[in-house]
């Protein structure tokens, strides 16, 4: 038996206060205002994302259609590996 004088060994108990974190991101916590440089960086990043939006790709000649089979795991049709 492990323990001395009736004490329990390796028993983890939760404290009365529970788990609290000073760095929590709760919605009621006031947010710090962003610096002008941070606002400018966020705006530039949004413009880059909009510019990098997927463009229409030309149709594949003789292809099977659909999405990229290697990416989506659809590598075969009727037991034969295709589109490689």
From TrEMBL:
Residues 13-72 are annotated as: Disordered. InterPro entries: SDHF4. Residues 13-24 have a biased composition (Polar residues). It comes from the Bacteria. It holds the Pfam family DUF1674. Residues 41-58 have a biased composition (Basic and acidic residues). Belongs to the SDHAF4 family. This is DUF1674 domain-containing protein. It comes from Rhizobium meliloti (strain 1021).
